[in-house]
Amino acid sequence: MPFPIPGTTVHVDDVAKIHIAALNPKIEVNGNEDFILNAGGVEGMQWNDAKEIVKRRFPEAVERGLLPCKGETETRAMRVDGGKAERVFGFEYKGFEEQIVSVVGWYLEAVGREEKEV
Q1: Angstrom distances, CA of residue 33 to CA of 6, 22, 24, 106
Q2: For the segment 28-63, what is each residue's pLDDT rounded down to a tens digit?
């Protein structure tokens, strides 16, 4: 990568959850109020940590070469507090590890379907 990637993430399920919760008339939200979503807390996360998560959670796929876990991704620290959304909508973000497991699981499922079709 020619430049660092911001150390902020949020799972698509959490984004959907917030959009649906925002429609609930029992949740008091001022009109035109903005919410920043960030599961990593104010300190964020490090993209290179994903490789260790993948190696630990998907060792067979790494061994088979489906998940090579090579390369480096420099993370740019960004102090982004997404806690307001958690407080107002009463939920907890899926953490970085859960996000990685989710997306890699989906990827391996898709690769498995492709292998069966060939």
Answers
A1: 24, 10, 15, 33
A2: 887 778 899 999 888 889 999 999 999 999 999 999
